[in-house]
Design goal:
heterodimer; A: 300 residues; alpha/beta; Glutathione S-transferase Yfyf (Class Pi), Chain A, domain 2; four-stranded parallel β-sheet; B: 666 residues; Rossmann fold; FAD/NAD(P)-binding domain; 5 domains; 27% helix; 25% strand
């Protein structure tokens, strides 16, 4: 049994419960226990770093320091925004020793800067991907548009994860689960993010463009790795449909749900019933994984 | 007893503003062995030098210390003056009281005291100086030019026209380089081939030039004036003397679908091929990796059809050894690999091409005979988006520099396109337009105004395909960073110019330095732009950094002059500041124990092994010996030598100790 730290952040306790449920369930299949960091707090989200730099670093540092205190040196942070805040904090603290001292002073806790923050895909790559194919019982035989959004891959200089303009890591995981990761144009475009509440019209337009391109390219499912993206693409579907002037019912699944289905977990465990857009995937022959196309030719 | 003269220079106000020169001169006069001291406003001027010369005669000086600027500035000047007064020039030394003192300190007693200290140390040093003689090295008056692009061609012709022998080594089957691939050249729009091919022919026919194509440098040994170079002549599977270049073999070869490198993959070639119709030499080679005979053992069609029986399947690579006095490296550049732009879809979409591919499309001898037709379906594109700075000036991707040529060739591409497709619309996404050069800015203006090219200032984030169109999404930063989407029929990337993939290996083989981008490094970015840190090896063209044709040609001629100047003497004179391993009477021979640590650390490969033999020829001892032609006098070996068997002329251990002791007031 591998024991790793787990930071749910606010959304996974509320609007994205199914994300948490599916991540924990998937980890369990691979004999991994995810231990919630005791007494965790808010990561600061978008608000803190717009107002006060010290505060925006102190909040995540407390989380990291708590992880370190509990000897959880690899922590899984499925929310892309939390992942971004925690990784940026690590980067800032390691870059500037005096700042690190100051922040540790504020939170009144020591922190070495050495806790390893993993986003959902890095977690799967590191602990699951090698064993994934042998565990697949029901290949996820659908056309999947992998949507990465903004925070998972940017800023690339700090995160050093995947290619910012044309990311590939989620596509590779979907292929391993037997899916057909399609090539499409809106992989890393903005979904409208926090405008979800204040300017629904902007979200409808931006997320609408994403949904339209995916559907035009025959996607049957969208895969996401961020609760914010999910809420915009899923919860705002009525507004999106109004923008697109048609009814689009393509479901939006978390990557953990897709992999969960592939390794035989049931829909209930993965929380599929919690989505706003109903997940009604057509029956397909399991033993025929879709051909992998649209691979990008890269020169060695 | 030495008789030292001290000459303190004011350097106008450069020194005297903060140092009391008069006082320094006066106090120096009291130093042991100093028989004369004075100060003067400009010691390097003609009266200043005369002052030194006359003092040498009048006071019978045998050592001179000039307290002035850095020896890098004026040591040769003062040594020459001393030499004219009958002294050995190496008995003149400089105390640097400008860069090391007056420029870096405020006016004060202490500053003057420091200048005095500096003079005192050099007086102590100069007393231990020994007369040295400049080293003479013979010169082999043959130059090797590596690379047969426009820079190599220019350099070779210039050297050859000075009456010296040149050996040109080109990796490809033909000379011509990237310039031969270009359609027209900016800012005059004259045809690249038309101005280049006569030069290529001239190289081939010049009595002083020996041309080796399909050949590479295997190794370089020796030193300036005396290089020994091994050249690998790759087998062409052909007897060149018999071949008439009729080309029958290339028409009959059954392997016809090999992507043509010269056409940047936009056309095909056969396995036995001439890279392009104007190739020099215009004789084919067999590409063994794609040849049916070499891969499968049967075919030999070319051999059957050859009217003069010139095909040689059993021909092997040939290593030839040549001697040369100088090398000119003109190996050129490469264009970024496609996997650099996943977001632009290069390699994924056929109609996303790079600038060199566009050159081939626009070239009269290209795959479309000069018609702009897109690669996917041969249609004439009605809208082309040119993306400048594709990879360049992008620190996030590791290429921070500007590739320099792209602004100009992109304007040219837009123009050529408009001239051929009148109803077409060219768009250019750019960061800045860098058009510094004679008639360059005017040229870009023409593209914008007369040829109606739509310049959009901003970056392209992504290119993707939708309904058969390439959607180029970018921002217009002059319109408040407004998002722009253009439905294009073709996209041309002005991909960054990068160093050749094997440039690092070649640099190491030549012992020349290179920068972080693996471009070859010049000895000084301003004042030695075509020299390398290795004497006798020169650079020209885009192997130093991306350069356009005029710049490459200018550098090539510059390098040629350096070679010609070197070859204008029968012998080479070098500074005698070289290391030497001491020699003593038998049975010791030398304190050198033959550990050869010096050999490992010498950056110039100047350490040789010398065997001391008895009368019967048995080796008694192996000693290090320093090749005076190669030694640059860096002193690394001296510092490393465990038994102090090596000393550096002009900077001996004794001299250094004297300086230190003088500072410590012993």
């Amino acid at each position: 049994m591998i024991r790793l730290g787990f930071y749910p952040g606010c959304s996974m306790e509320g609007g994205a419960r199914e994300y948490q449920e599916s991540v924990i369930a998937l980890a369990k299949v691979f004999d991994i226990e995810l231990i919630q960091i005791p007494d965790w707090n808010c990561c600061g989200a978008t608000a803190a770093h717009n107002l006060n730099k010290e505060l925006s670093l102190s909040l995540p540092t407390r989380i990291l320091a708590l992880a370190e205190k509990n000897e959880l040196m690899d922590i899984v942070v499925p929310c892309a925004a939390c992942y971004s805040r925690l990784t940026v904090t690590n980067h800032e603290l390691n870059k500037d020793k005096s700042l690190a001292d100051k922040v540790c002073d504020v939170i009144d806790m020591p922190y070495s800067g050495n806790v390893n923050v993993l986003n959902i895909i890095q977690f799967i790559q590191k602990y699951i991907a090698d064993k994934l194919e042998e565990k697949v019982t029901t290949p996820f035989n659908y056309n999947v548009a992998c949507y990465y959004g903004c925070l998972l891959v940017r800023p690339n200089g700090i995160l050093k994860f995947d290619r910012p303009e044309d990311p590939q890591t989620m596509d590779i995981l979907v292929k391993k689960a037997g899916g057909n990761a399609i090539d499409w144009a809106y992989k890393a475009e903005c979904c409208g993010a926090g405008m979800s509440v204040s300017r629904t019209d902007i979200v409808a337009r931006l997320s609408g463009n994403i949904i339209r391109d995916a559907v035009e390219r025959k996607a049957e499912v969208l895969a996401v790795a961020c609760p914010m993206c999910h809420s915009n693409l899923d919860m705002r579907r009525p507004e999106i449909n109004k923008f697109l002037k048609k009814e689009v019912d393509v479901p939006v699944l978390y990557i953990s749900q897709i992999l969960g289905l592939a390794v035989g977990l049931d829909a209930k465990t993965l929380g599929l019933q919690r989505h706003m857009v109903a997940v009604n995937l057509p029956e397909k022959k399991a033993e025929q994984p879709a051909p992998i196309t649209n691979t990008i030719k890269t020169e060695a | 007893m030495a008789r030292v003269g001290v000459f303190v220079c004011h350097c106008g106000e450069n020194i005297s503003a903060t140092v009391d020169c008069e006082k320094v001169a006066k106090e120096s006069g009291d130093l042991n062995s100093v028989v004369f001291s004075t100060d003067y406003k400009y010691m390097c001027s003609d009266p200043g030098q005369t002052l030194i010369k006359e003092a040498i005669k009048e006071h019978k000086l045998d050592r001179v210390v000039v307290a002035a600027c850095s020896p890098r500035m004026h040591e040769p000047t003062f040594r020459k003056a001393c030499s004219e007064a009958g002294m050995n020039p190496y008995l003149c030394e400089m105390a640097n009281i400008r860069e090391h003192c007056s420029w870096v300190h405020p006016k004060s007693e202490e500053t003057t005291a420091k200048a005095g200290d500096l003079v005192r140390t050099i007086v102590e040093k100069v007393k231990k100086n020994k007369p040295l003689q400049a080293i003479k090295v013979p010169i082999t008056k043959t130059a090797i030019v590596i690379g047969g692009g426009v820079a190599g061609i220019q350099s070779a012709l210039d050297i050859a026209n000075c009456g010296h022998k040149v050996i040109m080594v080109e990796k490809q089957p033909s000379i011509g380089g990237h310039m031969s691939q270009l359609s027209e050249t900016f800012p005059t729009l004259d045809c690249s081939q038309c101005i280049l091919t006569p030069r290529m022919v001239e190289v081939a026919q010049h009595p002083n030039i020996t041309l080796y194509t399909y050949a590479e440098i295997e190794s370089v040994d020796g030193f300036i004036g005396n290089f020994k170079v091994k050249i690998r002549r790759k087998s062409k599977s052909l007897d060149e003397n018999l071949c008439t270049g009729c080309g029958l073999c290339t028409t009959k070869c059954p392997k016809k679908k090999i992507p043509n490198e010269f056409e940047r993959g936009l056309g095909n070639r056969t396995a036995i091929y001439v890279p392009f119709p104007q190739a020099v030499p215009n004789k084919p080679v067999i590409d063994r990796e794609n040849c049916n005979y070499y891969q499968k053992g049967t075919c030999k069609v070319c051999e059957k059809v050859c009217p003069v029986q010139a095909i040689r399947f059993d021909q092997e690579d040939q290593i030839i050894e040549v001697e040369a006095g100088a090398l000119v490296v003109c190996t050129g550049f490469d264009v970024l690999k496609p996997n650099f732009f996943p977001e632009y879809g290069y390699g994924k979409y056929k109609d996303v091409i790079d600038g060199l591919q566009f050159e081939r499309l626009a070239s009269a001898s290209g795959p479309t005979k000069g018609e702009i037709r897109r690669p996917s379906d041969g249609e004439i594109p009605k809208k082309i988006v040119f993306i400048a700075c594709a990879g360049s000036r992008d620190p996030a991707k590791g290429i921070e520099y500007c590739s320099k040529i792209c602004c100009m060739y992109t304007a040219k591409h837009a123009m050529l396109y408009k001239h051929k497709v009148h109803d077409g619309t060219p768009y250019v996404f750019y960061m800045d337009i860098r058009a510094g050069g004679k008639m360059y800015e005017e040229f870009v203006r023409r593209a914008i105004v007369e040829d109606d090219t739509k310049y959009i200032r901003g970056r392209v984030s992504t290119v993707f395909e939708r309904n058969g169109k390439l959607i180029v999404r970018g921002a217009d930063t002059l319109m408040g960073a407004q998002p722009v989407e253009i439905e294009a029929d073709m996209v041309v990337l002005a991909s960054a110019g990068v160093s050749n993939p094997d440039s690092e290996e070649l640099a190491q083989r030549l012992h020349v330095s290179y920068d972080a981008y693996k471009f070859f490094a010049e000895a000084h970015p301003k004042l030695k732009p075509v020299e390398t840190n290795t004497a006798g090896i020169f650079l020209a063209g885009a192997c130093q950094a991306p350069k356009d044709i005029p710049e490459s040609v200018a550098a090539a001629s510059g390098a040629a002059v350096k070679v010609a100047a070197l070859f204008s003497n029968s012998e080479l004179t070098r500074e005698p500041v070289v290391a030497e391993v001491n020699r003593q009477a038998p049975p010791v021979f030398s304190t050198c124990t033959g550990c050869f640590l010096c050999e490992k650390v010498c950056p110039y490969q100047a350490i040789e092994r010398e065997e001391i033999k008895d009368r019967n020829g048995n080796v008694i001892k192996t000693l290090a010996r320093i090749n005076k032609g190669l030694c640059q006098g860096c002193g690394t070996c001296v510092a490393l030598c465990r038994v102090k068997a090596i000393d550096l002329h002009g900077f001996s251990n004794q001299q250094m100790y004297s300086e230190v002791m003088a500072l410590l007031n012993f």
